[in-house]
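Posting here for the record, re: alpha-D-glucopyranose.
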Amino acid sequence: MKRFYVTMAFTVAAFAFAAAQLPAYRNASLPLEERVEDALSRMTLQEKIGVIHAQSKFSSAGVPRLGIPELWMTDGPHGIRPEVLWDEWDQAGWTNDSCMAFPALTALAATWNPDMALLYGRSIGEEARYRKKDVLLGPGVNIYRTPLNGRNFEYMGEDPYLASRMVVPYIKGVQQNGVAACVKHYALNNEETLRHQYNVVVDDRTLYEIYLPAFKAAVTEGGAWAIMPAYNLYRNEHAAQNKRLLNDILRGEWQFDGVAISDWGAVHDTRSSITQGVDMEFGTWTDGLSMGKTNAYDAYYLAQPYMELIEKGEYTTRELDDKVRRVLRLALRTAMDAGKPLGSMNSPEHAEAARRIAGEGIVLLKNDGGVLPVDLSRKPTIVVVGENAVKMMTVGGGSSSLKVRYEISPLDGLRKQVSTQGTVKYVRGYVGDVGGSYNGVQSGQDLNDSRTADELIAEAVEAARSADYVIFVGGLNKSEHQDCEGADRTELGLPYAQDRLISALAKVNPRMVVVNISGNAVAMPWINQVPAVLQGWYLGSEAGNALADVLIGKVNPSGRLPFTFPVKLEDAGIAPMPQLQHPADTVDVVYEEGLFVGYRGMDKRRVKALFPFGHGLSYTTFAYGKPVLDKKKMTADDTLTLTLTLTNTGTREGEEVVQLYIGDKKSSLPRPAKELKAFRKVKLAAGESREISFTIDRAALSYFDDNAHRWVAEPGAFEAIIAASADDVKAKVPFTLE
Ligand code: GLC
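Prediction output follows.
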């Protein structure tokens, strides 16, 4: 035994000696900040300048002399983008980089289940790690302000509290893999039209209560190691060189210790980038117009031009050292983390995760007469209509576009699950976007069809007449002016004459289901003619399986809308984007509606939604008991507990999302009638009852006082509002704050 201890002692001594010989930055047993300072102290000026800007389309240089690795970034929020050529957007044609596509983040938000966000982040982080990527350029959490925004599908809806609760676990899951999440686009990038040129004018209350919370949660609770400033301007400064957003709020108020990575082409100036800009510059348009000159990385604003200003003595290395510290911290957390996991890609676990998240995100909007789930016991004939039943949706839409290992279409998913228990027929119904390529990735589908809309509608109506079920799968797609980066939609309605088709089908067959595949609200003029509607989202590789699971009832839908479906565009209460006077100008976008975005605006203007925020049905039913507060008065530093009993009064297991909103009955500043401050997704077996409780603290009662520049919980009368959606209030319980 003595020999053992002696051997151990020598071993420990040897390790300690070896570690002592390692330069501190290489010694994983030392504190992070010590390693950062040591590495910084060893770097030359040239090496420091080298690590704060891109060296290729998606990578930044390391310090070869010191063995500090280069850092590799990858899009996007829904899956790992295919490898691109060194200095190109086009894919490099590798044969090992097809990925798993997870559902779009609107679908994740629609699960209202933070456990799904953790599963999502962990899974996509494993794929990024396996592909040897150090930064995932996602998630996006810009608030859903207008239903026209081309990139709403990449974000988490209209409510800052829901987006905050869902983004934190996603980030933790990604970063467990030694991969940095890069939350984006910070901030106020709520539309795509003129995204490089619009200057947002918004009051501080709205900024702090609506547009910042999800980013703040990502940084202060999620511990995001990176953040991506947006293209647009705020207070007449581009977000990537914005004193208020980057220095005052992000690095000051939130004490962010990570890296601000510019959006690609978001940096426009050296001096402001030095003092109030990003820490890493990517994608700059070095030809001064809108594209990068080939391999002109030395011409980046934070490259040679910066070096020259330092050499001229106009700047010391003070700002540079802060940027480099942040980059080194990122490197030590990712590429240099010797203990990071191996990751994995296209695994059965990832397929299962994608299918589960998709299944939990699908929202049953309407189900009159219990048309759904499809009853297979009578070997039904099911006629599937619509381009989105077959169209690949993982290709296109901008930087979130992917090259997937596979994508199950709604039609294939349904055919597989119905199999011999029925007959599934397909008719096109309408022709929308027959394209199918992005950055050199081809969908491989030939959707061309020269028939006219009338011919297509006639064929579909004929097929639908005698069917037991008609399942229309339509909506939007990832083409420009649909759900796509770089441009917004121009209307709320469905494109490609779908409304006419849906009405024609409903006339000949009452057992009709509409599945809307979109990342945005759409108008539904035919809503009273159709008994059942599903919001299908962009569900990724497992789309068809997840949709079929819900359609045939294998999965009981439990999704809830993360944003409002207005009846018509004007009901959303958002002014249209103004026109540019001259191509090189900027243009003000004034957020006149202030706090009153989404359901907050619907309440204020007393406008009824087509389908409200938080809405979603189930194949079972739930009853809410009377909510009770443990006391009627609370002081600012204690909490209230609200309890209620929820019962599954239906015939099968299901999940309900109980929502708690707070209403401030009297406040010295205008406040929305109610604001989401807690929610709980509860799974109950048929007949099961369960008591659930919520804790109400002063934060839940507070508003941001922009004069005092702080959150204020004002004494007075409040209401705890228990609801199943923004329009389905179950009970209101008054209480007062002393
Ligand atoms: C794009 C997007 C951003 C993306 C980046 C790299 O323009 O705005 O979300 O991560 O450039 O593709």
